[in-house]
Each structure stands twice: as C-alpha cells, then as structure tokens.
Specification:
Helix content of chain B: over 70%
Distance between the termini of chain B: 27 Å
Largest sheet of chain A: 4 strands, mixed
Oligomer: heterodimer
CATH class of chain A: Alpha Beta
Number of strands of chain B: 0
Largest sheet of chain B: none
Shape of chain B: flat
Shape of chain A: elongated
Radius of gyration of chain B: 24 Å
Strand content of chain B: under 5%
Number of strands of chain A: 4
Structural class of chain A: alpha+beta
CATH superfamily of chain A: Hypothetical protein apc22750. Chain B
Structural class of chain B: mainly alpha
Order of helices and strands of chain A: EEHHEE
Order of helices and strands of chain B: HHHHHH
CATH architecture of chain A: 2-Layer Sandwich
Number of domains of chain A: 1
Distance between the termini of chain A: 14 Å
CATH topology of chain A: Translation Initiation Factor IF3
Chain lengths: 104, 146
C-alpha cells in the first residue's frame, strides 16, 4: 500500500477514487508512566512517556486506515493527514485519514 | 537464531499481515483467527515485528544516556525505592483510613456505604486490570517508542 501526503502518486496514474478512509485510536498511559511524566514536567525536557503514547496511537490509527483501504481494494492512499485531539486528561487520540485510490 | 522452516500457519499469518491473501483466503483465515488463541498471538507477534522494522531508526544521542541511566545503580535504586515507598504509603494510609472509619462512632450505614465504595472501586480496577493483562500480549503497539 502506497501512502502519500500529496494529492497524487508521482509516476503513477490514479484510475479510480474509492473514497475517504480513516483510522483512529485513543490510548492512555498507565499510572506509573503518568506519574513519571508529571515529574518530568517539573524539570523539563522531552517527556518520553508521552512521545511513546502518541507514537503508539499514530501507528495504530495508520494501521486501521490501511486495513480499511485494503478491504476496499485500494492500491494507495493519497492526501494522507494526521489529526490529534485530547479526549481525556491523559489520553491521546490520533486520527489518520486520506483518500483511497486505485492506480493504473 | 532458529533455522527451522516456517509452518503453513506462520506463512499464512505473514501473508495476512502483508495483505497478500485473497478475499476468500482472508475471510477463512479470520474465521480461524477467531477460534485459535495461538494464531492470534502469532499474528500479533508478526504485526509487532513489522512495526519495529518500520520504526527502525538510528539511535539518538539522548537514547544512549537513557540506556546508561537505566543501568545506573543510583538511578535504579532511587526509582525502585521511590515507587516502593509510594505504594507502601498509599496502601498503609488506605488501610489506616479504613480502620479509623470502622473504629469511629459513625453510623453503621455510613460504614457500609464506605466499604461498598472501596469494594466497588477495587472490583472495577481489578476487572479493568484483568482485561488489560489479557489483551496485552495481543497489543503489537506496546513496543513502539516514537
């Protein structure tokens, strides 16, 4: 599956637009990670606990989007975007979306 | 390193992860997936491997410091002792609070309600923890770092 942030796939022709595909994921850190993250807030620097949390959500959302595109017979996803929002105090939501297409 | 040939199920699981199965093959495999915990674990392990391979990136300078800190006895000791004291204090204070409520002259109904609150919370937490531990081996994203 080819994933592109551009509106087309360079060197390939889009023969059919299948439509919007998306995947989302909301994940939270366990209490131990949250406590350590809060302590790191006091001293500054990268909060690796939350970097990891966001990366987990991103990969899961991406996989879900690809699964949907694959199930609908797509060859590629163009115009891929990510969006994040806060669902809870310590939960990260990532939404990945794009347009599934067939290539010639 | 194992030199054995992959089994048919392992090959099917790899094809499933890579989206190489036909629609019928995929449906058949998913049906078997629902019935076989071993197959679910296999698919999850392969997904995890794929994620790790995709996320393979050169280490950053700070990673070496984090690794060194994780091995440092002072750091490990401080974290271990800190967590132990924190958990012990939490458990101790909770038990002391409970003891004080039961020893007090508060009405029996209040004592029972307080007990129900604690027991309800403990049951909910236990059930949530059980669900997490049950699904943890099937969560391929837990090793994603960044």
């Amino acid at each position: 599956m080819i994933l592109c942030t551009t509106d087309d796939v360079p060197g390939r022709t889009v023969t059919e637009t299948i439509g919007l595909v998306r995947g989302s994921s909301v994940r939270s850190a366990h209490l131990g990670r949250d406590v350590m993250a809060k302590l790191k807030n006091l001293v500054g620097g990268e909060v690796t606990e939350y970097t990891k949390l966001l990366a987990e959500s991103r990969e899961q959302a991406l996989d879900r989007m690809v699964e949907e595109a694959r199930a609908r017979g797509a060859d590629a996803i163009v115009g891929l975007r990510f969006m994040s929002s806060d669902i809870g105090d310590d939960a990260a939501e990532m939404l990945a979306y794009g347009t599934a297409v067939r290539l010639g | 390193m194992s030199a054995r040939e992959p089994t048919r199920d392992e090959l099917l699981a790899m094809a499933y992860i890579d989206g190489e199965l036909t629609a019928e093959g995929c449906a058949e495999f998913e049906q078997r997936l629902g019935a076989s915990p071993e197959l679910r674990r296999e698919v999850s392990a392969l997904r995890e491997l794929e994620l790790l391979a995709c996320a393979a990136a050169p280490k950053e300078p700070m990673d070496h410091e984090w690794d060194a800190l994780a091995r440092d006895p002072v750091q490990r000791g401080a974290l271990g002792l800190g967590w132990t004291l924190l958990v012990a204090a939490f458990v101790g204070l909770s038990a002391f609070g409970l003891w004080q409520v039961f020893r007090s002259d508060a009405p029996l109904a209040l004592k029972l309600l307080f007990s129900a609150l604690l027991l309800g919370g403990a049951l909910l937490f236990g059930a949530t923890l059980r669900a997490r531990l049950r699904t943890l081996p099937l969560d391929p994203y837990r090793k994603v770092k960044r």
